[in-house]
Amino acid sequence: MIKQKRLKVISKYERYIMISIGIIIMSLGFYYFIIPSDLVVGGVTGLGLVLSVTFEGFPISVFILILNIVLLVVGLIFLGKKVFFRSIYGSLLFPLVLFLMETFLPLIDIKDDLVLAVIFGGVLLGVGFGLVIKYGGTSGGTDIPIKILNKKFKMPISLALYSTDGIIVLLGVLVFYSEHGINAGLYALITMFISGKVADMVIVGSNSKKAVQIITDFPTEIKQAIYEFVYRGVTEVKIRGGFSKKDKIMLVTVITKQEYYFIRNIIARIDENAFVYVTPATEIHGEFEERESD
Questions:
Q1: Which of the four pLDDT bands, split at 50, 70 and 90, describes residue 219?
Q2: Quick one: pLDDT at residue 85?
Q3: Which of 2, 190, 251, 270 could make an S-S bridge to 214, C-beta 3.0–4.6 Å?
Q4: Is 220 inside a domain boundary?
Q5: Is the domain of 48 the same as that of 171?
Q6: Domain final position from 204, 224, 254
Q7: Spatial contact of 90 and 134, defined as CB atoms under 8 Å apart
């Protein structure tokens, strides 16, 4: 007998538990590998590391908390309440966890082994960030200015990301130049590459864009929900079951990795018995808006 695997809705409790675990894993990567090695890997954490060196005596977590609060307010003004409320949990939890680690946990002496720091730090950051995104969360920070550049100035997400993180990495090179030269900056770029690849694999595999095929008895309801909540186009394909001989409608949509959580829960709420499979969308031509999910 074939046992059918039903698509379950991810509850709010499960969602926040997994986001919290992701934040903790990210914090472990930063605290034990990235920060001791002076690796400025972009984002608010990288900027916090630069500020902690410039203004000695304050924990990095304090600078990260201040920066995240400022960015939350900016996000509320420019992006609205939806992004604000979605970002607030991770933006406050991350510096809190990092502060507790700074207060109670001893550091590992890994400063002279940048290769280990890059590998383990990059993997931990990728796994943690991947879990946060997979369950519809955000770590806050530079996600907000990236979305502002995309929404207000029509700058592509990739260019906005590379610009903001690139400036922060460059600041790190300047601050630590007397101690590391450009080596720390080059290692930071490798760390960012590793963490990005690992995060993509944690979320929906090795590619950031996916084609989702949905065979369901409720195509109209699912299609309308995708239009309303994810703002993605949906194609209807008439199909016929090879065994059942029944005519059905298959829905096809292409999404980014940030949208996977929302698509999955939309389907699960409407039809837990839907047959869903996801394939890599490695090359896309035509109309597809490259953006983050709000």
A1: very high
A2: 84
A3: 251
A4: yes
A5: yes
A6: 204
A7: no
Number of domains present in the structure of the chain? 2
Count Cβ atoms within 10 A of the Cβ of residue 213 and give its class: 0-12 exposed, 13-18 middle, 19 or more buried. middle
Amino acid (one-letter) located at 48: G
What is the pLDDT at residue 267?
92
Residue 239 domain boundaries: 209-280
Look-up of token digits 């808006």? 289
Which residues are CB-neighbours of 173 under 8 A, at least 6 positions away?
40, 182, 184, 185
The overall pTM is greater than 0.70: yes
